[in-house]
Structures are given as C-alpha cells and as structure tokens.
Specification:
36% helix; ten-stranded antiparallel β-sheet; 4 helices
C-alpha cells in the first residue's frame, strides 16, 4: 500500500546500470503495476515511472554498454519506487545521499560505492549518527529542532570524513571521486558557515 507521508530525496545520486540490470528493474516495476515509458532530449533520456496520479522522472545519461542514472536532486513520493532505487544504489555500487522523511524521524543515509558510509536518524529527542565502521555518536535534547551547536559539530564530523575520502581518492588518482568529494566539501563548508552565524 502506498504511504502518502513518504518523501524520499536522493541527492548527488550516481548509478551505472548495465542494460540487463535496467531491464530487470523495469520488469520489476511493471510487475508492481507501474507504467513506464521513455522521454528523450538532446543529452538525457528520462525513464518516466507512473502510478495512479503520480509520475516520476529518472534521468539517465547515454553510454555504449550501460546507462547512468545521474541526478543532483530527485524527490520520490512513492515507497516502492524509493526502495527499488535505494536497492539499485546498493547492488550496483552507486553513490548518493538518501533523505527519508516520514511521519516519524528523518533518516539520512550516505552511500559510497554501494556501501553505507554514514547514517543519521533525527527525531524530536534523539539524534544518532553512525558511520560504516559502526561507531555511533548520539545527540539528545528535548526540543524538536537540532541546536545550532549540535548541527555544527555534526557537520565538522562529516567534513572530516569527506576530507579523509578525498585524501584516499587523491592517492588512488580517481578523478571522478576527487571531483565528487570536492563538490560535497564545498557544500558542507558553505552550510557550516551559515550555521556558524547562528552560534
């Protein structure tokens, strides 16, 4: 059953899909009673996923042997489709950040090469941050919103982690990951400056 309170945002998502994998994904969605069709423009192919009144556009870049699902921001208001996309990130070694808004807590999961690199759960009283090594940092307060100091500390942790990943990417001479981590770092530093104004 569809959940009307679901809002899943995929940020900086990048998944390379072979044609057989994409075919399996389409077949699975059609088996769930979705209508799927393609829309083209000069550079991008859009897979339109439709159910009832809801239509989602998944942007793909053309390659010879595979298609790349690439989007800086993608909002999905359907649990089945959101879960299917998250599984694609995991199984196809994709990257991206998945923010899940429900009636309860907000969940933010960051994927790198299909692995969970960090997971944050935010609700009214407790904030939990966990990275892929299993270490966990917990924040508790009674208010509904995160305190600026807490956000600032969490962002420092995330910046440190991205710097470590950038260092690894530089050592491996992986230009794509270097570029990805630099962009992520720029966004984080910009947000941290905004939060710093509130301290």
């Amino acid at each position: 059953m569809r959940n009307s309170f679901i809002d899943v945002e995929f940020t900086d998502v990048y998944i390379e899909l072979s044609k057989p994998v994409l075919h399996q994904f389409i077949k699975r969605m059609m088996g769930q009673h979705y209508s799927l069709y393609w829309r083209y423009d000069a550079k991008t192919i859009y897979l339109m996923v439709e159910l009832d009144e809801s239509v989602h556009e998944l942007p793909f870049l053309r390659n010879t042997d595979f298609l790349t699902l690439s989007a800086s921001s993608l909002h999905i208001y359907d649990e089945v489709l959101a879960s299917a996309l998250e599984k694609l990130i995991q199984h196809q070694k994709g990257t991206g950040i998945v923010k899940r808004s429900t009636e309860g807590p907000l969940y933010i999961t960051s994927y790198q090469s299909g692995d969970i690199e960090s997971m944050i759960e935010i609700d009214g009283s407790e904030k939990v941050m966990m990275n892929k090594n299993g270490s966990m940092i917990q924040y508790k307060d009674d208010g509904k919103a995160l305190e600026p100091k807490t956000i600032f500390n969490m962002m420092n942790l995330e910046i440190d982690y991205v710097l470590m990943e950038l260092h690894e990417a530089l050592i491996e001479s992986n230009d794509y990951l270097v570029d990805t981590h630099k962009k992520k770092l720029e966004k984080l530093l910009s947000r941290r400056e905004q939060v710093e104004q509130l301290l």
